[in-house]
Amino acid sequence: MNEIDYLSSILDKIIDDNLDSFKENNSFQVRPGYSYDNFYLDRVQGAYEGSLNGLIHHIMFEDGIYKNILTDEQFERCKKAVDEEPEGIWLDNSTSEDHIPDDSLVDELEDIYAQVIEHVCIRLNNEGFKVEELDDFCEDF
Q1: Which residue blocks in the chain are alpha helix, DSSP H?
Q2: CA atoms of 131 and 126, how far apart (whole Å)
Q3: Residue 121: how many CB atoms within 10 A of its CB?
Q4: H or E segment to which residue 63 belongs
Q5: CB–CB of 15/127 below 8 Å?
Q6: What single-letter DSSP state applies at residue 35?
């Protein structure tokens, strides 16, 4: 199973576990047990804290996806970012005196996020929810 399929299956389970709550509360807040345990599946714009992007990032970190796709050096930078800024996400796209980002890795990570967010959008639409904030990721659905 590739990273996108794995992440999609985890998010499908989270959606399944919270469908009644989504309907009752008209909110897409979930507490799936990752990191600070408070995310909103309909937040993909602006700050990463509590966002779907943040949840994807923490699943990738805690379930070992980053460990599988990153070099040891990249993983250490990712781990440092998670420890120091748990409300952010890590894309390894910052340039410094001793680091030049790997553009192909940045593209791969951005693609993973985009495809998984699209999956969540489609899944929520299939469940009868219209989530305006996700519209940019699901223009064709």
Answers
A1: 3-25, 52-62, 65-69, 72-84, 103-126
A2: 11
A3: 24
A4: none
A5: yes
A6: T
Q: What is the pLDDT of residues 71-109, one digit of tens each?
A: 998 999 899 989 999 898 887 655 555 556 678 888 999
Among 5, 3, 8, 12, residue whose Cα is nearest residue 109: 3
| Helix 52-62 vs helix 3-25: crossing angle, to nearest 10 | 130
pLDDT at position 99 is 55
Tokens coding 57: 């990032």
Which tokens go with 71?
């070099």
Q: Which residues contact 96 (CB under 8 A, 6 or more apart)?
A: none
Structure tokens at 108: 């791969």
Q: Two tokens at 113?
A: 């996020």
Predicted pLDDT at 72: 92
Write down the residue that tokens 């009752």 correspond to. Answer: 24
